[in-house]
Amino acid sequence: xxxxxxxxxxxxxxxxxxxxxxxxxxxxxxxxxxxxxxxxxxxxxxxxxxxxxxxxxxxxxxxxxxxxxxxxxxxxxxxxxxxxxxxxxxxxxxxxxxxxxxxxxxxxxxxxxxxxxxxxxxxxxxxxxxxxxxxxxxxxxxxxxxxxxxxxxxxxxxxxxxxxxxxxxxxxxxxxxxxxxxxxxxxxxxxxxxxxxxxxxxxxxxxxxxxxxxxxxxxxxxxxxxxxxxxxxxxxxxxxxxxxxxxxxxxxxxxxxxxxxxxxxxxxxxxxxxxxxxxxxxxxxxxxxxxx
Length: 292
Description:
Elements: H1 2-50, E1 53-58, H2 64-76, E2 80-86, H3 88-99, H4 103-107, E3 115-120, H5 127-138, E4 143-147, H6 150-191, H7 194-202, H8 207-243, H9 253-282
Helix pairs in contact: 1-6, 1-8, 1-9, 6-9, 8-9
């Protein structure tokens, strides 16, 4: 009977420890996801900015050699990411596919103009920069008109600023929530050991002696939870990179390693501090109050 009772007690103790580690690791995992979003926020904003293009409408009588020369000059510019030349025939094929019918048979001629789609680097996609570039490109002899969607460009730039501020606020709130959850989880774990703490005091153990095993255990559990969170985070990032490799990459590997280190430190430090204050709460507490 005693062995059975002891086995049940060990099982319950192991279950409580497992629950503690899993709870903390999930909270750290959420913090890690937020950290990766912040790390990749710049890359994401650059991706959306650089996906926009403005179109150079070329004159109908422009020579192919002059068009190719203009494209080479644009590719050499420091603010241009890439260019794409679309001839009249290629534009007609694309429009035919979009319409689902051959408009050339109806019109009898090709009214489309050759174009060059220009994709800018993210730092040059601000409205003021695009306006200056528009004036420069318009001065080329073969250029008839420069067209870009100004409303979408302004919308993306405004939203990037709003999202950045929103992420900072969410980061601060989530960090406070994480600290609260970890603290409450640790306190519940220590609460189940309150009678053990009281018994140790009754047999003459001093405060530091009582705190030591709890602190060592909390350091170990905090580190273990951080390792689990880092493992989950690496798995998640692998899946995301595999599916959306253009959005999430490991180019910023140093920041990712710093994030892993920060998660390990956060798991250990927050766990240890919460344990320290939770144990202190029951040190010196009268036995009658332990039942409440």
